[in-house]
């Protein structure tokens, strides 16, 4: 038996695919190889497999499938993935037969699987296990070796559109984005520009994003200087650095120089998230998260549309983690439609598809923009009708390049960063002016352990607890005690914890509200392990 299943622990295909300690994944990768081939035969298209555990520690690894248009695996196949990963060795082949039968898969039809991995040391042997699974069904395949998650999503989509979305190679990705960036930046002319050639410090989380952004940087160096830190040459992946560290700890990563007002961006371990920040003259840290990125980008697209004389249905999709101040800014100041959905990229992505232009971002920095074909058609129409010095035509050209600079398949640290840099240049604003768009409400995230997090049933885009029934009235009561208070709790999809989010008028109040709510979860939700401890003496809570 190839790649026998040596563990009894049940692994679930969750929001981020399978993710656990790397040494538990050998049989899972083999079976995912089989699953990807079946999916490819079923969809009659190329399927992608990405081996990564994103922002998790280097000892972990994970794997997820990429569907034909570069989107996440369809939910009904997530269940199949879970079944395949957990079935005993002796029942594996009969389960495969039953999947083939149930989904009427023509096992003789051609299939193609492409795959890549992040920089984790466990990646190459897990790739080999995956490949054994793919080969067991005689499928064709390409191993793209070390790439970012969004690069793999791009490749799947461009292969399945016969190159219409972009040349289906890693170099094609760099070329498409860099060409759009260079075109935009050569078009933008301001009488007074705050900085002629911007510079940005990138924290590559000691991962694959660092390697790829260096390649990108060479292609666009006429218009921007990108200096990469935590570049995987010596430091440990995601250790004291990266987008998740910066967002959760609300502090700067190690390894990035502190220079006042210098723009800095942190990627996560597989480069599908980005968080911005800067230091003021007192070396105080200021963060610009996914909400602020969404506000900047949505505002820029909306301006382009107005300048091009186009009316489009533009919406912004957030989750409950979006800072209340950002939602207020988007709706009240920018007069944009805002939708709130459950956490997880697939929920944001599918909601964003309902708009002609759907901007979606999680506060943690994962997000992108989706454009309906109708928008691209309207823009081409404006270009055809306009004269060369026509400002409508120029705006339409700029927006088309902005679309080309976007990785529409999934959130992408590199693409998102270049969109931000472009939006700042177009608006002729610096990081301070961007930050001043609105002021974040102080907030705090905590997590607490319960014996069984599956007892939590939520509603209203995960903002209210339905079960256990006693919890929500308590949360409502606590929230009402705090000015600008808001709080919700949800079981994590990636860790064995319940997460608590709270915001309020001051950091101290946000910390106390988060603490009080975590105590409610612990006491009424079957807490186990360490009981939450209160924030002491006006000091901030230390986050586990
Ligand atoms: C996964 C999700 C991410 C979400 C996070 C929440 C994808 C590709 N990733 O990383 O969108 O923010 O889970 O984690 O969907 P949690 O359930 O542990 O809070
Ligand atoms: Zn990631």
From TrEMBL:
Cofactor binding: number and manner: Binds 1 Mg(2+) ion per subunit.
Keywords linked to the UniProt accession: Carbohydrate metabolism, Cell wall biogenesis/degradation, Isomerase, Magnesium, Metal-binding, Phosphoprotein
InterPro entries in the cross-refs: A-D-PHexomutase_a/b/a-I, A-D-PHexomutase_a/b/a-I/II/III, A-D-PHexomutase_C, A-D-PHexomutase_C_sf, A-D-PHexomutase_CS, AMG1_II, AMG1_III, PAGM
Catalytic reaction annotation: N-acetyl-alpha-D-glucosamine 1-phosphate = N-acetyl-D-glucosamine 6-phosphate
Binding site residues for Mg(2+): 54, 268, 270, 272
Pathway: Nucleotide-sugar biosynthesis; UDP-N-acetyl-alpha-D-glucosamine biosynthesis; N-acetyl-alpha-D-glucosamine 1-phosphate from alpha-D-glucosamine 6-phosphate (route I): step 2/2
A Gene Ontology BP annotation from the UniProt entry: UDP-N-acetylglucosamine biosynthetic process
Gene3D superfamilies, per the entry: Alpha-D-Glucose-1,6-Bisphosphate, subunit A, domain 3, Alpha-D-phosphohexomutase, C-terminal domain
Residues annotated as the enzyme's active site: 54 (phosphoserine intermediate)
SUPFAM superfamilies assigned to the protein according to its UniProt record, in alphabetical order: Phosphoglucomutase, C-terminal domain, Phosphoglucomutase, first 3 domains
Cofactor needs: Mg(2+)
Domain annotation Alpha-D-phosphohexomutase alpha/beta/alpha: ranges: 43-77
E.C. numbers: 5.4.2.3
Broadest EC class assigned to this enzyme: isomerase
Domain Phosphoacetylglucosamine mutase AMG1: 172-275, 289-427
Domain Alpha-D-phosphohexomutase C-terminal: 476-511
A GO molecular-function descriptor: magnesium ion binding
Sequence positions that bind substrate: 362-364, 490-494, 499
Role played: Catalyzes the conversion of GlcNAc-6-P into GlcNAc-1-P during the synthesis of uridine diphosphate/UDP-GlcNAc, a sugar nucleotide critical to multiple glycosylation pathways including protein N- and O-glycosylation. Catalyzes the conversion of GlcNAc-6-P into GlcNAc-1-P during the synthesis of uridine diphosphate/UDP-GlcNAc, which is a biosynthetic precursor of chitin and also supplies the amino sugars for N-linked oligosaccharides of glycoproteins.
Similarity-based family: Belongs to the phosphohexose mutase family.
Name of the protein described by the UniProt record: Phosphoacetylglucosamine mutase
Species name: Helobdella robusta
Designated gene of the protein: 20216694
């Amino acid at each position: 038996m190839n790649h026998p299943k040596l563990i009894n622990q049940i692994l679930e295909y969750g929001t981020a695919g399978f993710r656990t300690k790397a040494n538990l994944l050998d049989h899972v990768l083999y079976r995912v190889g089989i699953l990807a081939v079946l999916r490819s035969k079923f969809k009659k298209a190329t399927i992608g497999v990405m081996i990564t555990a994103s922002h998790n520690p280097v000892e972990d690894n994970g794997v997820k499938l990429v569907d034909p248009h570069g989107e996440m695996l369809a939910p009904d196949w997530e269940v199949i993935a879970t079944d395949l990963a957990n079935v005993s060795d002796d029942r594996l082949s009969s389960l495969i037969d039953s999947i083939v039968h149930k989904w009427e898969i023509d096992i003789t039809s051609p299939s193609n699987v492409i795959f890549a991995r992040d920089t984790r040391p466990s990646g190459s042997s897990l790739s080999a296990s995956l490949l054994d699974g793919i080969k067991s069904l005689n499928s064709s395949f390409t191993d793209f070796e070390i790439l970012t998650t969004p690069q793999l999503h791009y490749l799947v989509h461009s292969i399945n559109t016969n190159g219409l979305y972009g040349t289906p190679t890693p170099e094609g990705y760099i070329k498409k984005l860099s060409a759009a960036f260079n075109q935009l930046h050569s078009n933008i002319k301001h009488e007074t520009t705050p900085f002629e050639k911007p510079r940005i410090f990138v924290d590559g989380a000691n991962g694959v994003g660092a390697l790829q952004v260096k390649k990108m940087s060479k292609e666009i160096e006429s218009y921007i200087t990108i200096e990469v830190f935590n570049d995987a040459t010596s430091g440990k992946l995601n250790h004291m650095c990266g987008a998740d560290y910066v967002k959760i700890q609300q502090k700067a990563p190690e390894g990035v120089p502190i220079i006042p007002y210098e723009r800095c961006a942190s990627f996560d371990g597989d480069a599908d998230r980005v968080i911005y920040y800067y230091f003021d003259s007192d070396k105080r840290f200021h963060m610009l998260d996914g909400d602020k990125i969404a506000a900047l980008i949505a505002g820029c697209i909306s301006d382009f549309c107005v300048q091009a004389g186009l009316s489009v249905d533009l919406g912004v999709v957030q989750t409950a983690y979006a800072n209340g101040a950002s939602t207020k800014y988007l709706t009240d100041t920018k007069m944009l439609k805002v939708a709130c959905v459950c956490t997880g990229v697939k929920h944001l992505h599918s909601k964003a598809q309902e708009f002609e232009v759907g901007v979606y971002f999680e506060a943690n920095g994962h997000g992108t923009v989706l454009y309906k074909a109708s928008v691209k058609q309207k823009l081409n129409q404006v270009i055809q009708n306009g004269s060369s010095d026509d400002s409508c035509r120029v705006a339409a050209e700029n927006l088309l390049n902005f679309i080309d600079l976007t990785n529409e398949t999934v959130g992408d640290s590199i693409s998102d960063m270049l969109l931000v840099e472009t939006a700042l240049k177009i608006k002729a604003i610096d990081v301070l002016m961007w930050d001043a768009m609105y002021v974040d409400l102080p907030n705090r995230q905590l997590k607490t352990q319960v014996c069984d997090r599956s007892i939590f049933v939520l509603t209203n885009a995960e903002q209210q607890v339905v079960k256990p029934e006693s919890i929500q009235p308590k949360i409502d009561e606590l929230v009402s005690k705090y000015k600008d208070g808001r709080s919700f709790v949800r079981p994590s999809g990636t860790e064995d914890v319940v997460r608590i989010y709270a915001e309020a008028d001051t950091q101290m109040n946000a910390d106390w509200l988060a603490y009080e709510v975590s105590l409610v979860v612990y006491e009424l939700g079957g807490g186990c392990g360490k009981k939450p401890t209160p924030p002491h003496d006006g000091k901030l809570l230390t986050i586990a």
